[in-house]
Structures are given as C-alpha cells and as structure tokens.
Amino acid sequence: MALSVFYYLCGMEVNLLHTNISYLKGVGPKKAEILGKELKVFTFMDMLNQFPFRYIDKSQIHKVAQVNDDLVYYQLIGTIDQVQLIGAPRATRATARFSDDTGSIELVFFRGLKWIKNRFKPGVKYVLFGKASEFNHNYNFAHPEIEEYNPNDPLIGEGLQGVYNTTEKMKDHGLGTRQIAKIQRQILQQVMDFIPETLPLNLLQREQLIPRKYAYYQIHIPANNIEIQQATRRLKYEEHLFFQLKLLRAKKRRESLNQGYVFSQVGDYFNTFYKEHLPFPLTNAQKRVIREIRIDLGSGHQMNRLLQGDVGSGKTIVAMMVMLLALDNGYQACMMAPTEILATQHYATLKELLKDMPVKFALLTGSTKTKDRREIHEGLEDGSLQIIVGTHALIEEKVIFKRLGLAIIDEQHRFGVAQRSKFWEKTERPPHTLVMTATPIPRTLAMTQYGDLDVSKIDELPPGRKPVETYHVYDDDRYRIMMFMKQQIAKGRQIYVVYPLIKESEKTDMIALQEGYEALLRDFPEPEYKISVCHGQLKPEDKDFEMQRFITKNTQIMVATTVIEVGVNIPNATVMIIENANRFGLSQLHQLRGRVGRGADQSYCILVTDHKLSDDGKKRMKTMCATNDGFQIAEVDLELRGPGETGGLRQSGQIEMLIGDLQKDGALIPQVRDAAIQILNDDPKLIKPENRMLREHYKELFAQTFDWSQIG
Ligand code: ADP
Ligand code: MG
Fold first, then answer.
1. Which of 333, 456, 458, 506 would be 313's cystine partner, CB 3.0–4.6 Å?
2. pLDDT confidence of 651, banded at 50, 70, 90?
C-alpha cells in the first residue's frame, strides 16, 4: 500500500503533503534521489513549491515545415531515425532525424550519447518540444524534450504549460520541464484538497486573494493568464506576509526582551563639545537625527537604528556626538568601518574634532603593531580607553570591553547581520547599535532586509553645496577632457582620475592605470604640473605620502583606484574623472562622485567609457548624468542588479523566497507590511482563533531557522 494512501486512511492530512516524492507513480527512488540532490525536493509539498518561472503555449502542434524562426519554441509530433554518433574514436555528439508528413529536421545531442543511440524506436511517434536554432541556413533542435506520443496525454494540446527549473542531470534522467509539469499535475490530483489554507478568511476577502489550494493548482495548471496572475499574487502575498510578520515580531521581541542600557543624561562631554568645539552649525537634519537617537538611547530598550544619509551629508559628526553621549553615561563606544582607509579617516576626523577634549580614544586595524594592539586591548578591558575606531579587528574575540554601551557601524551594506551580532557577545546586554549607510536604501529593502531596524534619515546636505555636474564622454574625446582639466587646474582646483581595479591583483587593470598615469605625465609635464598616484599595491606609508601630497595641494592630479571611494574629504578637489566607468556599479559611481562637490566651487564628474556599452551600462551612465539623488540611484541599481548585490541580501542568508521577489514586488510589499502591522497590533501573539492558521504556518515555516530576534 502506498504510504500516501495510508496517511489518507489515518486522516493525517498534513503528512500527506509531506509524502516522500519517491512514492509518486513514475518517480521511484532513482529519480527521487536526483530531485533531492538537484532541487532539494523530497516531498510532495517541496515539489509543489517549485513554481514555473514562465509559461509556454502548448496548445499548438506545429509541423516541421513551419520551423522557420530562431529561438522559438516548437511542438512537433513525428518519428525519429538515423541516429548517428559523430567523432571517432570517442563520439562528441549525436545527431538524428525527426520527420513528420511535411519534412524532416536534424536533432543534435552533446550529452548522454550512448543512451541516445538506443533510445528511439523506429516507427514510433514522439512528441518533440524545443527551441529551434539556425545553423548554416538550416534549422535544428539541440537537446529538445522528447517523449513517446500518447494521444491521451493531457499536456498535449493544452493551453499553458509551466516551465520549471531543471538541471542537465535532471534532463538526462527524464526529469525535463515537461516531466516536472506532469509530476505536478499528478501530485495535485492526489493532494490538492489537503493543501491547508494559511491566511484568515477576512484577509483573503479584504485583499481579494484566492484560496491557497486553488493558487497551487492555478500556478501549475493555469487555464489562462488571469489564473496565473491570481495565483502568483496570492502566493507572493503569503510569502511576504509571513516574512513581514517575522520581522515585526522580531523587532517587538527585541524591544521587550533586550533591555538596553539607559543613557539618561546629556553630560559634560556632549555639552562641552556642542557649545565649544562644534566646527560648524549642524544642519536641521543632523539635529533631528541626534534628537531621535537620544530619545531612543534613554528609552530603556536597546537601540537598533539605521542612519541613512547620502554621501557628504555629515554622518560622521553625528556618530561622534552620539559616542560622546555614551561617554557621558559612563560607557565605552566603538565605531567600525569596512576598510582600513575609512577607519583611519574616521580616526583622523575624531582626532581633529576632539583635540581639545579629554577623551581617550585609539585606532585598531589589521595593521596595528603588536605592541600597540596589546595596549589597546588592555585599555578596552580596563575601561581606560573610551572610544575605539577600527575595522573588523574590533570584533575579534580577543577584544574585550569593560562597558561597551554603543557600537556604530559605518557602511552597513558590507557587514552582514551576523557580524553586527558579534558585538552582542562583548557585553552582558547588547549594546545600542547605530548602523550608518551612505547607500540610500530603497523602500522595499528598508522594509525587508532592515525591516527590524528603526530608521533615521539625514535628508539634507550641509549648506553651500552645489550639485555636481555629471557628463558622459567617450574615450576618443581625450583632448577635450585634457583641455578641461587644464582649465580647472588653472583655477587652482584639483582633480581625481579613478581607474577600476576590481581586484587589486588584476594585472590588466593595473596596466590600464599605469598607462593612464604615463599619458597624464606626458600631457601634464613637470614642473608646471604634479601628479600623485595611489593604489592598493603601494605600501601603506607610500599611499599616505601620495595622499598627503594631494591634500596639501602639492599635486593637482590624483590618479587612483577605488581606494579613494570612501572617506577621503578634500574640498578643493572639484573634478572626478572616472575611467572605464561602465565597469562600476551605480552605487560605486555615486560614492566616487561624492568625493567632489564638497567645497563651495562648482564640481564636475566625468564618466569616460568606450563606445561598446551594454544596455545596462548605458542606463547607468544616463542615470548618473540625470540625477545626484542617491535615493533614485539606489532604486535604479536595485532594478538593474537585484537586491543581492545592492544590499548584500543573498549573502546574509536572511531571505530565501520561493516566489516572492524583493526586486519586483515593490508595489506589493508596503501593502503586505501594513497588513502585517494591523494583524500584530490586533493580536500580537497570534492567539485569536481567526489567526490560528497564521500561527500554525508561521511555526512550520520558522521552526528551524535561526532566531534573528535574538540579535536584532
Ligand atoms: P558622510 O555622511 O558621507 O560620512 P561626512 O561626515 O564625511 O559625510 O561629512 C562630509 C563633509 O561635510 C565633511 O567635510 C564634514 O566636515 C562636512 N560637514 C558635515 N556636517 C556639516 C555641516 N553641518 N555644515 C558644514 N559642513 C558639514
Ligand atoms: Mg562617511
């Protein structure tokens, strides 16, 4: 007796969906093993959760004579003969002829050759489905799906058929997309009525969502496009809803569980700095953000806040003043940056700002000398060091704090949640955490990746900044670029010329930089002109030396790699020339551009590319020229690259969705989040009877996953 029937007789509905896929007729242990390995599909439900990524119209059966278009799918019925192995002594491909009453066409195979040799029986009719390709004015099919024709096959002549993810290995074992479609159909026939609803009826009605079991049916076996849309919306909605519930609950729980240190007073450190050492009046946005943070710090729960502010909006001074608040309340504070250069820059800023204040602080990075490092470790442990700035070196186990009350993390997108959480282990209670990012976060990402954080925004630049003018120039227009540079230098301005060096070890990139540097030396000869050069292969002291020459205006041009991407602040530099600009992503271009436009003079950003630009490349250049608004740029970036790269989402392993798509569901997510907020406001623990389904599915979904609420 099949196990599924057994479950059925026992009334174990839920388990029926968890029936091992090998019990399905036509699957068996071998195919089940492959499904498990290739798709992590073990049960009926796992299989149903493999959604088609698109649909094809199989209502038509074509004739061989109709095949006349490259890359178009055809469905043919006919016979197969003349199977030949080609290439001796070891065959490298096989060919065969497929014929119907209108003609014949070649089939080509590159894998599974031995198997193909004996696969086709003469005189038997097959259904072929595949994409035609043109080769020497002839069409052929490479690795089409082929099955024996069965006039009663429900898939033939039917409207839309889902196309499923498959792998070469699956196809080689008779698990092509067509077979998967059949398996889905078979499973649905057996278990559709046992697919439990997960959303309360009132929600279904209010949001006009179809019941879950129909959604599963329609997504796999749609009658038309409307059914696909209904099903997709329902399933996406569900997935986003549970994710939002999880984030919101995590946030709530963190607020109630994680008691925060109470920073109740604004004391001497903060006040003295504010009254006597503030180098410029704060912008209203900076004041507002400091106020928001101060309230949070005094509230009794642990702060977990994201501080967003475009490049140059002045986050550093905010961070510093918040650290002084920690000191005022007897705690230590730390500030972690993603690169050594940036950490060093923060340290230098701190040194300048705090030069007349009795604050003990230090810099800790990978290149801190052993002796200094030991001293720093001791100072942090006995509490004599009040502020530490640094890189990842800060989260090493050896680093022990006496009373860490506040952790500030700059440029969040490069740190995962897991790294953030390392600070939690360093104190008895989690320290208040302020995450700063210059990459504006699109709304959907803010609601997902950062959905458990509170957000503060600096949405105003310091006064007197003129928007940077940006131009896209082709590299055969060098003469004009050079004349422009000379004109700017004559006005006393300085210029960055940046080369992409994606990996510091990449030879060709290094050569491009060298050649560019030499060309500049010819166009801008000494003694009239002087040029600095700065890249990752230089020793740190040489880098510093070159940087210093530029900062002190001894050189007019700085040729550099992206080492200057973050941090560097030289207001007299007004031109940013980005070579091979198409090799940079949008957020990186925006960051680089942020290095100019920091003084009172008009600044320029010149994006240089050759004429061979991809569509994405063109769009990036156009976006950069059209706007200085980091927020808009981030939206386009998300659209072009997806959240994985923009937000480090995939890497963080925080979200793995079956059908939901953070990139494409931008319109749905805010709606779902609102619904989730409503549900939790009404029933925080999901204990009301009408929310029973929500609670059960929630438990099922998140039972095994790591509890993020513990780390905020
Ligand atoms: P980011 O937000 O990119 O980290 P920074 O903190 O480096 O920006 O600030 C950019 C520049 O703006 C620095 O030179 C800083 O001194 C200056 N700055 C910050 N706030 C103000 C302000 N309120 N008025 C004038 N200049 C400011
Ligand atoms: Mg900064």
1. 458
2. very low
Topology classification of domain 73-151:
OB fold (Dihydrolipoamide Acetyltransferase, E2P) (2.40.50)
562 lines ligand 1 (CB under 6 A): no
Is the CB of 311 within 6 Å of ligand 1? Answer: yes
The number of the ligand 1 atom at minimal distance from the alpha carbon of 458 is: 2
Expressed in angstroms and rounded, the spacing between residue 27 Cα and the centre of ligand 2 is 57
Please provide the CATH number assigned to the domain covering 469-627. Answer: 3.40.50.300
> What is the percent of the chain where pLDDT is above 70?
87
130 lines ligand 1 (CB under 6 A): no
3-state DSSP call for residue 73? strand
Our answer on whether the CB atom of 315 is closer than 6 Å to any ligand 1 atom is: yes
Ligand having the closest approach to the CA of 337: 2
What residue's CA is closest to ligand 1, atom 18? 314
- Work out the burial of residue 608: count CB atoms within 10 Å of its CB; fewer than 13 is exposed, 13-18 middle, 19 or more buried: buried
Which CATH superfamily groups domain 196-465+646-712? P-loop containing nucleotide triphosphate hydrolases (3.40.50.300)
- Residue 462 near ligand 1, beta carbon < 6 Å: yes
The alpha carbon of 387 and the centre of ligand 1 are apart by a number of angstroms equal to 20
pLDDT digit string, tens, across residues 541-566: 888 788 889 988 999 999 998 766 55
Kindly state the tokens that stand for 441: 């976060």
Q: Which residues pair with 469 in a beta bridge?
A: 604
Across the chain, mean pLDDT equals 86
Torsion from C-alpha of 494, 498, 504, 510, nearest 10 degrees: -100
Among the listed residues 213, 708, 700, 197, the one whose alpha carbon sits nearest the alpha carbon of residue 430: 708
151 Cβ contact partners less than 8 Å away, ≥ 6 residues apart: none
Q: Is the pTM value of this prediction over 0.70?
A: no
Distance of CA 654 to the CA centre of its chain: 11
Pocket test for ligand 1, best of 283, 317, 411 (most atoms within 8 A of CB): 317
pLDDT score recorded for residue 249: 83
Taking the centre of ligand 1 as the mean of its atom positions, its distance from the CA of residue 447, in whole angstroms, is 27
Q: What is the dihedral of CA 668, 303, 311, 652, to 10 degrees?
A: -60
For ligand 1, atom 23, name the residue with the nearest CA.
282
